[in-house]
Amino acid sequence: MKRTVRIIGGGLAGCECALQLLDCGFAVKMYEMRPLKTTGAHSTGKLAELVCSNSLKSEEPATASGLLKEELTLLGCRLLPLARQCRVPSGSALSVDREKFSDAVENELFNYGDFELIREEATDIESLPTVIATGPLTSDKMAIKVGEISGKSRLFFYDAIAPIVSADSIDYDKAYFGGRYGKGGEDYLNLPMRRDEYEAFYRALTDAQTVVLHDFEKSELFEGCMPIEEMAKRGSDTIRFGPLKPVGLRNPKTGEKAYAVVQLRRENVAGDCFNLVGFQTNLTYGEQKRVFGMIPALKNAEFVRYGVMHRNTYINAPDVLTDTFRVKKADFPLYIAGQLSGVEGYVESIMSGLIAGRALAAELDGKPAYEPPGEFTVTGALCRYVSSCPTDFKPMNANFGILPPVADVRDKKSRKQAYHDRAIASMPMPCGISMPEL
User: Fold this and answer.
1) In whole angstroms, what is the distance from residue 406 CA to residue 419 CA?
2) Global pTM?
3) pLDDT value at residue 343
4) Other C-beta atoms within 10 Å of 417: how many?
5) DSSP secondary structure string, 21-33?
6) Which residues of the chain are modeled with pLDDT < 70?
């Protein structure tokens, strides 16, 4: 009989990890509590459900996100090819139809006869080869067990989700398709605002009623998903130089450049729903309809999903994990992957599942310890950040700031390219793998 690995959690990290282990010849039992027990953010019981956004961020090579994708492709990542099969237009970003992507992942897993999905909440950690990938919305019972492993109180931050509107409720006379600087064809729907319209919207946004957070929660907002209303309170131009920046956009009908521009991204292949880009929010549902309805093209918008805020859980990883996401003090093969481990983001979670799966397979096969890619790669830098961040550990996205600096390159564009070229040159190039065309 094949040796069996237990994976708790059917999100991105758990599914990538499962596919890696199945490819290595192991049987996998995956425990997923949804839909029997749901969370405050998920809406289905499907595996690999994307919760906050349908975007896996940029595929541009000279970005940290794009470089991470290249590295994972070279490492034999299983989920990224499925994501590319389910993509929706979004310029240089890899955005997917959520339902099609989840279906593709499930189909891939069930192609293996040694994969078993158990629809129940796991409430204990047995002394069996195990990967805990329960995500930032880990159930209370499992969070207690994880807290016992970490030896310290669990850490939290608060994350927000952007609303989605029905395509046929948008006023297209007050909108136009197009990407910044003409790039990406008609991938984004742009909603321009005049100065007076923006200023009225801004005043309403900063005065709008939010869902009440406790005092101890208010300082725990994650910068990478800052609610639009919190961002706006930092100054009237903060969001106008952020998600509403009009740079590189002109109305093709009039040639005019707007004072502010809201961008919408297709939510699915059918194109019947749009996501408000950068509009993560903690406004009450009524306020979302009122305030976002002040955007001229959204005056009569129908909300398919309102934005919500939810608590994310993560461990104090440097005290707990090695750079392969193995629990340091566990006397049996035990790994923690995904956002629970302290990586932040969809592709970062996929990366942790890949590394944990490869490392666990090597450990069970009695092979030399698996080593992540070197210090010049985003993958390797994230692994080492999680395992050895010296102070004030916080969840981390892919970014060039965690890499050793490149020398003697001052131009920003050239410096980003130098980070990319150095990382790819430091990685082994597997036979038979070609990089996707952007």
Assistant:
1) 7
2) 0.77
3) 92
4) 15
5) HHHTT-EEEEE--
6) 40-41, 151-158, 184, 212-225, 429-438
36 Cβ contact partners less than 8 Å away, ≥ 6 residues apart: 45, 119, 120, 121
Residues 6+ positions from 214 with CB-CB distance below 8 Å: none
Beta bridge partners, 314, equal 155
The CA distance from 133 to 126, in Å, is 15
| Cα–Cα distance, 318 to 388 (Å, whole number) | 5
Integer CA distances (angstroms), 282 to 52, 59, 165, 221, 311, in order? 13, 29, 16, 11, 12
Q: What is the pLDDT of residues 66-99, one digit of tens each?
A: 999 999 999 999 999 999 999 998 888 999 999 9
Q: Where are the beta strands (DSSP E) in 119-196?
A: 130-132, 155-160, 164-166, 176-177, 188-193
Tokens of 261: 């521009």
Amino acid at 41: A
Domains of the chain: 4-58+77-156+312-398 (3.50.50.60), 164-307 (2.40.30)
The residue assigned the tokens 């040796």 is 3
- Determine phi and psi for 398, rounding to 5 degrees: -65, 130
For residue 327, give the 3-state DSSP assignment.
strand
DSSP helix/strand/coil, 257:
coil
